[in-house]
User: Which sequence fits this backbone?
């Protein structure tokens, strides 16, 4: 059996493009559903911004799991009624496939986490993995904030390699050895994917961006691959 997961991130207001949901087990959103800088303009409210996503999620045929990004403030998330925030936890979506989540937001959309902020979230994931993971389980990690790669991703000319990444997330990836990491936050990497080594284990790392992609996980081998929508 092959598990099919639809993935996206950093939508900043607009729901993902249409995708065939047949044989799909879940939608994963890697955070920044909204653009916080737009809320409050022309009468827009957090509640109105959430209504767009609730309506989108209501039309889906599979569950929608998310990890919040810095734009997804508590004022926005309190109105999300049909999307499940799994940050700091683990969610079983199939017989032997778990999704772990890392997300964070402050009170303002422009606030970014420190290593200590995400380290606390990573510790929560560790505890849940130790309690929930069975011997034959595969794990995929959904995180708004990318791990720090020893072999950095390409960066814009004005950017530093590994900007926007976090070493505490790297340590967690090395420990739980996920078959795939679905990440967001760094817009320069949208649409890119590759296999990266973390602590001797290689994980497929995906930057779906707002256009999205499909993640395929072989239930027997744990091999992961990507398909375009």
Assistant:
């Amino acid at each position: 059996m092959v598990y099919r997961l639809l993935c996206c991130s950093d939508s900043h207001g607009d729901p993902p493009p249409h995708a065939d949901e047949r044989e799909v087990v879940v939608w994963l959103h890697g955070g920044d559903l909204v653009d916080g800088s737009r809320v409050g303009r022309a009468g827009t409210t957090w509640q109105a911004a959430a209504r767009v996503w609730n309506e989108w999620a209501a039309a889906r045929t599979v569950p929608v799991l998310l990890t919040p990004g810095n734009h997804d403030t508590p004022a926005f998330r309190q109105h999300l009624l049909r999307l499940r925030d799994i940050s700091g936890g683990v969610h079983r979506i199939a017989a032997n496939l778990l999704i772990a989540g890392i997300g964070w937001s402050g009170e303002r959309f422009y606030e970014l986490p420190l290593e200590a902020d995400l380290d606390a979230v990573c510790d929560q994931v560790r505890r849940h993995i130790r309690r929930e993971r069975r011997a034959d389980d595969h794990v995929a990690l959904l995180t708004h904030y990318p791990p720090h790669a020893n072999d950095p991703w390409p960066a814009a000319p004005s950017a530093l390699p590994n900007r926007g990444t976090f070493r505490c997330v790297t340590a967690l990836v090395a420990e739980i050895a996920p078959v795939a990491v679905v990440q967001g936050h760094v817009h320069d990497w949208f649409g890119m994917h590759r296999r990266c080594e973390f602590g001797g284990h290689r994980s497929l790392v995906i930057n779906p961006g707002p256009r999205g992609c499909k993640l395929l996980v072989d239930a027997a081998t744990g091999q992961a691959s990507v398909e375009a929508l």
